[in-house]
Amino acid sequence: MNLLALFQSDILSSLTFFPLVGALILLALPKHALAQIRMVAFAASLAPMIFVLRILHLFDPGTGNLQFPARGTWIPALNVDYVVGLDGLSVAMVLLVSIIIPLTILGAARIVGEPQENKVGAKPFFALILLEQTGLYGAFTALNFFHWFIFWEASLVPLFFLIKLYGNEDRTTAAYQFFIYTFVGSVAMLIGMQFIYLATGSWDFKELAALAQTPHAGGNETELVFKIKAFAATLGIPFLTKHIVTLLFFLVLMGFAIKVPLWPFHTWLPISYTQAPTAGSIILTALMSKMGVYGFLRIVLPIFSPSVMEYSQLLMSLALLTILFGALAAFSQRDLKTLVAYSSVSHLGYCLLGLFAVGATGGSLNDRALALNGVILQMFAHGLSAAGLFYFVGLIEQRTGTRDLADLGGLRKTIPVFCGIMGIILFASLGLPGLAGFPAEFMIFRGSFPLSMILISVAVLGLLLTALYLLRMMDKVFFGPQDDKWNQIADLSGRERFVGGMLAISLFVVGMVPAPLVALSNSTATQLAKLFS
Amino acid sequence: MPWIVENLWLIAFLPFLAAGISALMPRAQKKASSGIVIFAMALSLLLSLKAGGYLLKAGSSHETLHLVRNFDWLPYGDTVIRLGFLLDPLSAMMLFVVSFVSLLVFIFSLGYMDHDENFTRFFTFLSLFAGSMLALVIANSLLLLFMAWELVGLSSYLLIGFWYQKPSAAAAMKKAFITTRIGDLGFFIGLLWFHYASGTSLFYDQGQGALDPTKLSILGGSAALWISLLVFCGAVGKSGQFPLHVWLPDAMEGPTPVSALIHAATMVAAGVFLVGRMYPVFEINPTALEVVAFVGAFTALFAATIAVAQWDIKRILAYSTVSQLGYMMMGLGVGGYVSGLFHLFTHAFFKALLFLGSGSIIHACHHEQDIRKMGGLKDRMSRTFVCYMIGMFALSGVPLFAGFFSKDEILLDALHFHPANLPHFASRIPIVFGLIGAFLTAFYMMRQVKYVFFGSPRDHGAQHAHESGSPMTLPLIFLALMAVATGFLGWPGHSWFHHFMEPAAEAHPTNLYLMLGSIAIVLIALGVSAFVYSGEALRAGAVDPLEARFASLFRVLNNKYYIDEFYEKTFVLFTRTFSRIIVRFDRYILNGFFVWGSALIVYGLSLVNQLIDEAAINRGFDKGCRSVRTGSQWNRWIQNGLSQHYLKITSLAIVILFLLALFIGRT
Amino acid sequence: MVTLTHYLVLAAVVFCIGLAGVLTRRNAIMVLVGLEMMLNAGNINLVAFWRYLGSQAMSGQMFAIFAIAVAGAEAAVGLALLIAVYRHFRNVSVEEISSLKG
Question: pTM score > 0.90 for this model?
Answer without folding.
Answer: no
